[in-house]
Structures are given as structure tokens and as C-alpha cells.
Amino acid sequence: MTSPADHAGGYKQPVSVLVVIHTPALEILLLERAAHPGYWQSVTGSREGDEALAHTAWREVLEETGIDCRQHALRDWQQQNRYQIFSQWRHRYAPGVSENVEHVFSLCLQKPQPPRIAPDEHRDWCWLPWQEAAARCFSASNRDAINALATTCSHTSG
Predict the structure, then answer these.
(1) Are 144 and 58 in contact (CB under 8 A)?
(2) C-alpha atoms less than 13 angstroms from C-alpha of 130 in its C-beta half-sphere
(3) Fewer CB atoms inside 10 Å of the end CB: C or N, the chain?
(4) CA-CA-CA-CA torsion sign (26, 147, 134, 51)
(5) What is the pLDDT along the chain (158 residues), one digit of tens a residue?
(6) How far is the C-alpha of 94 from the C-alpha of 96, rounded, in Å?
């Protein structure tokens, strides 16, 4: 939950995190955006000030789900996605900013737990098998991260 006032000029930074929350069995937590029903996603959010990206991931997970990353395994994938900011969200960024750089993380919980969602950001949540979660995501980078997680986990568990 980042407020535009937290950033220079009142705008969000075009630097964000994507945190795929999952279990060892590859059940994935998805959140439905409050302002855009039908838009399902993992935890996302913009960096505030000059905070470390791992801190951004921790803060966004805590704000959006109530889950404390310090209790679980947060992994920085050292992966960046560059994408065009959707037109409906471009007003949150400085004039002329049209691209965002997203840094991918994952958070493994031993079992699904109900999140404490922020109603101003999300209206619903669900835990789904990875295939269903990937299919439900509106964001291609989120879908790709879930698919990559499944591939990585299948290689390390066999």
C-alpha cells in the first residue's frame, strides 16, 4: 500500500516487486484487485524512497496479506521484468513515465493460510493449484513467474 505522497513529486517510482506466495505443493495465493474486479494477481507494489527491494517485498506482503516474511522463506529471484504500465495506472507515475521495472520474489509458506487483505486494495483472495493460478492472472509477468516457479520446483524435488 503505497501512497503517491511517499514519492518525489507525489508520483510512484517505476520500480516494483512481484511476490509469488506459494506452498511446497505449489498452491498459489492470488488477490483480486478492489478497483478492478476480475483482476487477480500475486502481491505487487512500488519501492518507497531508496529502500532495498527485499524490504519492499517484505513491506508489501505484510501490508497486503498480513503475512510476515521473516517467518518464512523469501527468495529474491534476481530477475527483472520491464513492461509498459497499463494506461489505467499511468496517472500514478510522473508525466512521460510509461515503463516499470518489476523485481521478482517468491515466498514459501508451509501450508495455505488465510491472508488479512487490505479492503481498499483487494476484494477477495484464493489459494489455487499453480496451473489454475497462472491461468487466472491478468498480468503476463505474474503468469510467467508462476509457471517458472512450477518448473523450478519440479526440477529440485525430483
Answers:
(1) no
(2) 19
(3) C
(4) positive
(5) 444 444 557 899 999 999 999 999 999 999 999 999 999 999 999 999 999 999 999 999 999 999 999 999 899 999 999 999 988 889 999 999 999 999 999 999 999 999 999 899 999 999 999 999 999 999 999 999 999 999 987 655 44
(6) 6
Grid cell of 14 as nine digits: 517505476
Distances (CA, A) of 131 to 53, 71, 149, 157: 27, 26, 11, 18
> Which domains are seen in the chain, by residue range?
4-157 (3.90.79.10)
Cell for 12? 510512484
Measure the CA–CA gap between 122 and 28, rounded to whole angstroms.
16
